[in-house]
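testing teh design pipeline on a random one, pls ignore if ur not involved
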């Protein structure tokens, strides 16, 4: 579980970071279909964001670069209180006003 400060996550969430939980793609299923938004990530490869087609809430993120994984947004969990981020990734991209949220470790 991690907090991502990359610019893509900032733009997708409208905040300074994204709270993500990685899972093996073959262990994940979702009941209803997400609407998918494709963009080019920082690696230059495609990334895909899954959104609820009714309310627009972000649910998942995955990429060509790490095609065996899917990342679930912590806020989309039935019980987000069970989410406990262990590290920050791309901390150098953190906005000055969001630096307090960088997890050192």
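output:
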């Amino acid at each position: 579980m991690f907090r991502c400060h990359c610019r893509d996550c900032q733009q997708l969430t409208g905040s300074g970071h994204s709270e993500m939980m990685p899972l093996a793609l073959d262990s994940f299923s979702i009941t209803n279909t997400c609407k998918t938004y494709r963009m080019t990530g920082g690696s230059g490869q495609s990334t895909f964001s899954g959104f609820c087609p009714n309310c627009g809430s972000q649910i998942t993120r995955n990429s060509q670069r790490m095609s065996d994984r899917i990342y679930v947004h912590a806020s989309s969990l039935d019980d987000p209180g069970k989410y406990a981020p262990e590290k920050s990734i791309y901390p150098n991209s953190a906005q000055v006003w969001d630096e307090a949220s960088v997890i050192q470790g």
